[in-house]
């Protein structure tokens, strides 16, 4: 049985019905589209905000000397209410099998979406976002600490010695008021 598409663009290759049916069990608004060698997973919900994003993307891309075709396609899909969730590149050409996501992780599309859906239902994704954010913040803080430590061990010590060796004393040279 064919699964009803939520958007008019079918993609360069048809989405396997079994895969799309599994995704729709997770969320009935999901859509999977083939774009070149990659597959775009997105949610389709027509609203004003997504149409505005589509208009903005199209305006920016058409203002460039060489517009990015994928961005123009994303703009057209945004007009239909499509919001990109993740991109996947199948390792063996089959989107139902193992794929590499945009972060380089090896996942299956359905299992990755189940995990995303679980975290979203748990706390609207705040915990996963917070873990990613604090991880970046900790890396940035560690780098700042390293720079400060290096400065204190090299330049800072030299500046301290220079200040101590070239002391300046102020004396009254006999000026009277």
Question: Gist?
Answer:
The protein has helices at residues 17-26, 48-62, 69-79, 109-123, 126-165; strands spanning 30-35, 38-44, 82-90, 99-101, 106-107. By secondary structure, it is of the alpha+beta class.
Write a structural description:
This protein is α+β, with helices and mostly antiparallel strands and 177 residues long. It folds into 2 domains: 17-108, no CATH class; 125-163. 51% of the residues lie in helices and 15% in strands. The protein is built from 5 helices and 5 strands; from the N terminus they run H-E-E-H-H-E-E-E-H-H. The protein has helices spanning 17-26, 48-62, 69-79, 109-123, 126-165, and strands spanning 30-35, 38-44, 82-90, 99-101, 106-107. It has a 5-stranded antiparallel beta sheet, with helices on both faces. Helix 1 runs parallel beside helix 4 (109-123) and helix 2 (48-62) runs antiparallel to helix 3. The longest helix has 40 residues, at 126-165. The protein is elongated, with a radius of gyration of 28 Å.
Note the main attributes of this structure.
single chain; 177 residues; alpha+beta; 2 domains; five-stranded antiparallel β-sheet
Q: What does the main sheet amount to?
A: 5 strands, antiparallel
In N-to-C order, the SSE pattern is HEEHHEEEHH
**Count of spatially separate domains:** 2
Category from helices, strands and their pairing: alpha+beta
Anisotropy-based shape: elongated
């Amino acid at each position: 049985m064919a699964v009803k598409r939520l958007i008019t663009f079918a993609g360069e290759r048809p989405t396997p019905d079994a895969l799309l049916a599994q995704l729709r069990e997770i969320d009935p608004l999901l859509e999977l589209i083939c774009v070149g060698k990659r597959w775009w997973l997105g949610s389709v919900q027509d609203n004003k905000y997504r149409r505005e994003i589509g208009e903005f993307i199209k305006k920016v891309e058409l203002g460039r000397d060489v517009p990015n075709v994928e961005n123009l396609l994303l703009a057209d899909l945004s007009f239909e209410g499509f919001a990109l969730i993740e991109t996947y590149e199948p390792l063996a050409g089959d989107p139902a099998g193992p794929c590499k996501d945009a972060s380089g992780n090896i996942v299956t599309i359905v299992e990755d979406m189940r995990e995303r859906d679980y975290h979203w239902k748990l706390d609207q994704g705040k915990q996963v976002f917070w873990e990613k954010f604090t991880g970046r913040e900790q890396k940035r803080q560690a780098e700042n600490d390293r720079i400060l430590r290096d400065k204190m061990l090299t330049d800072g010590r030299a500046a301290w010695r220079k200040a101590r060796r070239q002391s300046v004393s102020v004396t009254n040279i006999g000026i009277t008021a």
